[in-house]
Write a structure and sequence with these properties.
The complex is a heterodimer of chains A (296) and B (286). Chain A has 296 residues and is an all-alpha fold. Chain A is 81% helix and 0% strand. Chain B has two domains: 55 residues; 199 residues, MetI-like fold, CATH 1.10.3720. In chain B, helix 4 runs parallel beside helix 7, helix 4 crosses helix 10 and helix 5 packs antiparallel against helix 7. Classes of the chains: A mainly alpha (296), B mainly alpha (286). Chains A and B meet through helix 2, helix 3, helix 5, helix 7 and helix 8 of A and helix 2, helix 3, helix 4, helix 5 and helix 6 of B.
Chain lengths: 296, 286
C-alpha cells in the first residue's frame, strides 16, 4: 500500500508516474501472453506432426464422408414406407435381443460394481476408518480400478473368460467398483457425525456404527449415483462388444467393418434410442426416489 | 388392562385419517416386499443370462486371470520404452487436437444454440436435438466411421474426438451462455454496440471461465478415452496395448497400463494448474 502511495504522491507528476507504472505492468502481461501463445502454437504444431494430421487427405475425404452418410441413409419412400422400414430393420428381432443383452450387461455390471463399491467405500472414508494404512490401501485400490478403462479390462477378461457377455460384465463391474467407490466414499465423508458418536457411545462396534449411523444417511445418495452409473454403463456396454465382450457392439463393429451400409445407421439409431429411453426412465426413477425421501 | 377400542381411541382415529404419518401401511409394506422380490428375481435372471452360473467357466477364468496377473509382474518394457513413449505422445496429441478442434467449433455453435442469442425456438430446438444426437453416438463408434473415411491412424481418432465433443461443447456452451447476467449485455447494447460487440464484450467475458474450465475437463477426459481409441485402430497407445494383449506379452501390457496411469495423473495435475492460473482456485471440480 505504501509503495503505491509513494509512486502516486512522490514524483513531480503523479499522472506520468502512474502511466509509467501501468505501461510496465502491461508490457509484463503482454510478454506473458506472447510466451503463452508461442507455447500453445508449438504444442499445436507438435500435435499436428505426431497426430499425422493430413489436411489434404481430410479435404479429399470430406466428400467421402458425405458419400458415406448418404450410403448409410436408408431408402425411405413415402409410398412404400412400411416395406422400406421393414427392409431397413430387417434383423430387428435379433438386434433387439442383442440390445437386451447389452442392457443386462450394464445392469449386472452396475449391480456387482455397486456391491464392490459398498464393500470398500467405508474403509476408504477418512472419517470412518481410524486405521490410516487400511484407508490408504482402499483409496489406492479404488483409484487403480477406476483409472484403467473398461475396454482394457475387457481385453484381459476376454482372454481369461472367453468371448461373451461374462467378460464384459466383469470389465464394467471392476471399473464401476472404482468409480462408485470413490463417489460413495466422498458421500460418506460428508455425513453428520452425531449419529456415529451416538452408536459408538451406546457400545456399538464398527459394523453396527456403519449399519445404523451411516447407511440411513447415505443410502439415497448411493441410489442416485448408482442409477447415474447405470446410464453411463449402458453406453459402455454398447461398445464393449468391439473387443468381443458381448452385446450389440460386436454386431455394430461387424457391419461397420464390412460396409453393410444401411445396417450401420439402423444399429446406431437403435443404440441412441435405447440410451435416450434409459436416460429418461432413470431420471424419472431418480426424481421419484428423491421425492419419497422427505416422507419416509 | 384393556386396550382402548379402535373406535374410541384418538390415536386410532388419527391413524385412520392420516395413515401415511404412522409409518408404512400393510399394503405399502407388501408393495415394498414385492418390488424387492422383483428386483432380486430380475438380478438372478440377469446373472444367469450373462453366464454367472457357469461355475466351470468362472473358475477356469479366475485361474487364467491368476496366471495373467503372475505374468504381468514385474512389468517390463523389454526395450520398447521409446516406442511406447511415442504411443503416449500420439495419444496426447490426439486428445489435444481433438479437444481443441471441438472447442473451436463448439463456441460459435454454442452462441447459435443459446436461446438468448438466437431467439428462434424452432432453430434452437432443432440445433439442440442435433447436438444430442451427435453426443449420443460413442467416440469409439465415430472412430470406426472415420477409419472408413480417412483410413487407420491417429487422424481418425482426432476426428472422432473432435466430432463427438462438438455436440457436447455446443450443448454445454449454449447452456452457459443462457445463464449469463443480462445487464452487461444491455449495457453494451445501450452504449451503441453492434451484435458482434455485444457477444464480444457483453457475453464472452462472462462465459470464458466456464468454457475454459469445461474444455480443460474434457481434455483430461479425452486423454483417457484416446488411450482406448487405438484398440479399434484409431491411433495412440491403445494400438500397442491391444497388440501386446493379443500376443500375450503380459509384462509389456502391464508396463503400458502403468504408463497410461502415470500420463493421466500428470495431465490431471497439469490441467488443474492451468485452470487455477486462469480462473483462480475455484471450487469447480466435476
Amino acid at each position: 500500500m505504501t509503495d503505491r502511495i509513494q509512486v502516486i504522491g512522490g514524483g513531480d507528476d503523479p499522472v506520468a508516474a502512474f502511466e509509467a507504472a501501468r505501461d510496465a505492468a502491461r508490457r509484463a502481461k503482454r510478454l506473458q501472453t506472447v510466451v503463452g501463445l508461442v507455447l500453445f502454437a508449438l504444442a499445436v504444431a507438435a500435435s499436428v506432426h505426431i497426430g499425422e494430421v493430413r489436411i489434404d487427405t481430410f479435404v479429399e475425404g470430406l466428400p467421402g464422408f458425405a458419400n458415406y452418410l448418404n450410403d448409410i441413409a436408408p431408402v425411405l419412400r413415402p409410398s412404400h414406407l412400411a416395406g422400406d422400414l421393414a427392409e431397413w430393420y430387417w434383423a430387428l428381432p435379433r438386434w433387439l435381443g442383442l440390445l437386451w443383452d447389452t442392457v443386462l450387461i450394464a445392469f449386472v455390471g452396475t449391480l456387482l460394481g455397486g456391491i464392490g463399491a459398498l464393500a470398500f467405500c467405508f474403509p476408504a472414508s477418512r472419517n470412518l476408518m481410524p486405521r490410516y494404512p487400511i484407508y490408504f490401501a482402499a483409496r489406492r485400490l479404488a483409484e487403480i480400478a477406476r483409472a484403467v478403462p473398461e475396454l482394457v479390462y475387457a481385453l484381459i477378461f476376454v482372454f481369461a473368460f472367453g468371448l461373451g457377455p461374462l467378460a464384459g460384465v466383469l470389465a464394467i463391474a471392476v471399473h464401476t467398483a472404482g468409480a462408485l467407490g470413490k463417489l460413495f466414499a466422498e458421500v460418506n465423508e460428508n455425513v453428520d457425525p452425531k449419529p456415529i458418536e451416538g452408536v459408538i457411545a451406546a457400545g456399538g462396534n464398527w459394523f453396527q456404527m456403519i449399519r445404523y449411523a451411516v447407511i440411513p444417511q447415505v443410502l439415497p445418495n448411493y441410489t442416485s449415483y448408482g442409477l447415474l452409473r447405470f446410464e453411463i454403463n449402458v453406453r459402455g456396454a454398447a461398445v464393449i462388444g468391439f473387443v468381443g465382450a458381448g452385446g450389440i457392439g460386436q454386431e455394430l463393429m461387424f457391419v461397420i467393418r464390412e460396409f453393410i451400409y444401411t445396417d450401420v445407421s439402423a444399429l446406431v439409431l437403435l443404440i441412441v434410442a435405447a440410451v435416450v429411453c434409459i436416460d429418461i426412465s432413470c431420471e424419472k426413477l431418480r426424481h421419484y426416489l428423491i421425492g419419497q425421501e422427505g416422507l419416509s | 388392562m384393556t386396550r382402548p377400542s379402535p373406535a374410541t381411541s384418538p390415536t386410532a382415529a388419527l391413524r385412520q385419517r392420516h395413515p401415511h404419518l404412522f409409518g408404512k401401511t400393510p399394503a405399502e409394506k407388501l408393495r415394498d416386499r414385492l418390488i424387492l422380490a422383483a428386483v432380486a428375481g430380475f438380478s438372478l435372471y440377469a446373472l444367469a443370462a450373462t453366464g454367472f452360473f457357469d461355475l466351470d467357466r468362472i473358475l477356469g477364468g479366475l485361474g487364467k486371470l491368476g496366471h495373467v496377473l503372475g505374468f504381468m509382474l514385474p512389468p517390463a518394457h523389454n526395450g520398447y520404452f521409446w516406442d511406447f513413449m511415442g504411443g503416449i505422445l500420439e495419444t496426447l496429441a490426439m486428445a489435444f487436437l481433438g479437444t481443441l478442434a471441438a472447442a473451436v467449433m463448439g463456441v460459435p455453435l454454442g452462441f447459435l444454440g443459446a436461446k438468448n442469442v438466437v431467439p428462434q425456438w424452432l432453430f434452437h430446438f432443432g440445433l439442440r436435438r442435433i447436438f444430442d444426437s451427435i453426443r449420443g453416438i460413442d467416440q469409439l463408434i465415430w472412430a470406426l466411421i472415420f477409419i472408413n473415411v480417412v483410413g487407420l491412424g491417429p487422424f481418425a481418432g482426432i476426428l472422432a474426438i473432435a466430432v463427438g465433443d462438438t455436440g457436447t461443447f455446443g450443448k454445454l456452451f449454449a447452456e452457459a451462455i443462457e445463464n449469463i447476467d443480462k445487464r452487461q449485455v444491455e449495457g453494451v447494447r445501450a452504449a451503441g454496440g453492434s451484435k458482434i460487440q455485444v457477444m464480444r464484450f457483453g457475453i464472452l467475458p462472462q462465459v470464458f471461465p466456464v468454457i475454459l474450465s469445461q474444455v480443460l475437463y474434457y481434455f483430461e477426459s479425452n486423454t483417457r478415452s484416446a488411450t482406448i481409441l487405438g484398440i479399434v485402430g484409431a491411433g495412440g497407445i491403445g494400438l500397442q496395448l491391444s497388440d501386446r494383449i493379443r500376443v500375450y506379452n503380459w509384462d509389456e501390457a502391464a508396463f503400458i497400463i502403468l504408463m497410461i496411469l502415470v500420463t493421466v495423473a500428470i495431465i490431471d495435475a497439469g490441467s488443474r494448474h492451468v485452470r487455477e492460473h486462469f480462473i483462480g482456485k475455484a471450487e469447480y471440480r466435476p
